[in-house]
Amino acid sequence: MTFTLIAINIVAFFLEQRDPNLLIGLLALWPPSPAVAADEPVFHFWQLLTYSALHANLTHLLFNMFGLYVFGREVERTIGHLRVAALYVASVVSGALVQIAVSFASTHSYPTIGASAGVFGLLVSYAILFPHRRVVLLFPPIPMPAWVFATGYGVLELFMGASGEEADVAHFAHIGGMLGAIALMAYWWRSRHHSWID
Asked: Is residue 198 part of a domain?
């Protein structure tokens, strides 16, 4: 499933290059607005999922696919391909919902794109499953336990989102992705008598 998700993102990226304005207008996550001009993009319910398949540039795509590959494979080996797909979708949708909620308090109206919410959901799932496994930062290359890595990333995203730094980055979608994955993992834990695996 991890490789299928990566393939979907890569194919979507190349399709996006053919007509970016059309796909971003139709598939990116646009904040709901009560009144827009006839030619302006508007929110559609499918954007809660489709925004995750679009990326701003090749670097954006590569970083997200690297995270999806690193964390997705290990999570999938532990909980199976169906559950990793459910985790990814739940993270993407919850990331979208949090981003929309935050957009109501913001004066900015710009689209959200990228698989980051899904990747952050897999990151926190990895940290829950393997809390003491070592993860190495890319810059600088510092090893740390997975739970420290995920917690630190979550705190950093919250700080950057609240401070308004990098306003073009959907920090709250990242946080929403983590929250969605945590909620689904907790549900599975309780419903399956403290077991991640069927």
From this structure: no
Are the beta carbons of 41 and 160 closer than 8 angstroms? no
What is the pTM assigned to this prediction?
0.86
Within a domain: 139: yes
For residue 29, tell me if it sits in a domain: yes
Q: Domain holding 90: CATH number?
A: 1.20.1540.10
Q: Which long-range contacts (CB under 8 A, 24 or more apart) does 7-13 make?
A: 8/53, 9/52, 9/53, 9/55, 9/61, 9/64, 9/65, 9/68, 9/115, 10/61, 10/65, 12/53, 12/54, 13/53, 13/54, 13/55, 13/58, 13/61
CA atoms within 13 A on the CB side of 17: 8
**What is the full per-residue pLDDT of the chain (198 aa) written as tens digits?**
899 999 999 999 888 888 888 888 888 998 887 655 556 777 888 999 999 999 988 999 999 999 999 999 999 999 998 999 999 999 999 999 999 888 877 766 678 999 999 999 999 999 999 999 988 776 667 888 988 888 888 888 888 777 766 667 788 889 999 999 999 999 888 876 555 554
Number of domains the chain is built from: 1
Two structure tokens written together for 25: 């207008």
Domain hosting residue 38, numbered range? 2-191
